Amino acid sequence: MPELPEVETTVRGLTPVLADARLTLVEPRRADLRHPFPADLRQRMTGARVTGLGRRAKYGLIDTDRGDTMIFHLGMSGRWRIDPGEPQTHDHLLLETEAGRRLALNDPRRFGFVDLWPTAELIAYPPFLAMGPEPLSEDFNAAYLAERLAGRIAPIKAMLLDQRVVAGLGNIYVCEALHMAGISPGRAGGQISRARLARLVDAIRAVLNAAILAGGSSLRDYVRPDGELGYFSKEWRVYGREGDPCECGAIVRRRTDSGRSTFYCARCQRS
Q1: Residue 84 catalytic?
Q2: Is 247 a catalytic residue?
């Protein structure tokens, strides 16, 4: 599933096409993806001018001058295609701008979705209500993390994947950040010192920024809007590398936690 860096890369790829653009065509090509398309999507978006693009956690945001925000989630296999030729079978939403640029939301598995919400009330959008801070924001720091983890016996990896603690982190980048910070994924969150939490915050930011710079990680279906693959997977320290040597010389291990693979180095991440 595309994670924060892939969604950020997607939004940045859409910005040159959509920023300040007027939409002349908004055409859903089926009734639904994971959820039905908003019944009035065509009416509310056609003729609107895009006033901003952004991201919240793993959701992309397209604001318009009508006070609406089109929210999109890429699900497991979604991606936007820029200036495609003829629509493909899995192009489920088409956009066209006054300048003649075209976009197609392609989603073979249809686990993504599109929604509309008043821009001024985005904080009240149901999936956003209980979300923690963005990991690249100033609100996410060692003091905040120490407060949220105080007294918790749940493993630190599970805590970081909890969107109520921090928004947008997924399995790949949590594994990578924990390795960079030298923290065991099974360590109880409440037992990690403030100094080590500071190191973890820095590692999370470093991993995410490096992944965004690399265009994300292409895993299964994810492709950037320009059609290129994200190449951060070439920089993975532990994720997907079971049986390979860690940089310390030990062997990268894998275990399953709550149905998800956890990759780690037992030597680098002893505690």
Answers
A1: no
A2: no
Bridge pairing between strands 253-257 and 260-264: antiparallel
For the beta sheet containing 91-97, the strands, ordered from the edge strand earlier in sequence to the opposite edge, are 23-28, 91-97, 102-106, 79-82
127 is catalytic: no
260 is catalytic: yes
What is the rounded average pLDDT of the residues 242-252?
96
List all residues 6 or more positions away from 138 whose beta carbon is below 8 Å from its beta carbon: none
The DSSP code for 122 is G
Catalytic residue among 55, 58, 157, 187: 58
In this predicted structure, the answer to whether residue 227 has a pLDDT above a threshold of 60 is: no
Tell me which of 2, 28, 155, 225 is the catalytic residue. 2
Active-site annotation holder among 3, 6, 8, 134: 3
* pLDDT beyond 70 at 226: no
On whether the CB atoms of residues 171 and 99 are closer than 8 A, the answer is no
Mean pLDDT of 138-150: 98
| Residues in contact with 3: Cβ distance below 8 Å, sequence separation at least 6, in sequence order | 58, 168, 169, 170, 171, 172, 173, 216, 217
213 pLDDT higher than 90: no
- Give per-residue pLDDT as tens, 149-160: 999 999 999 999
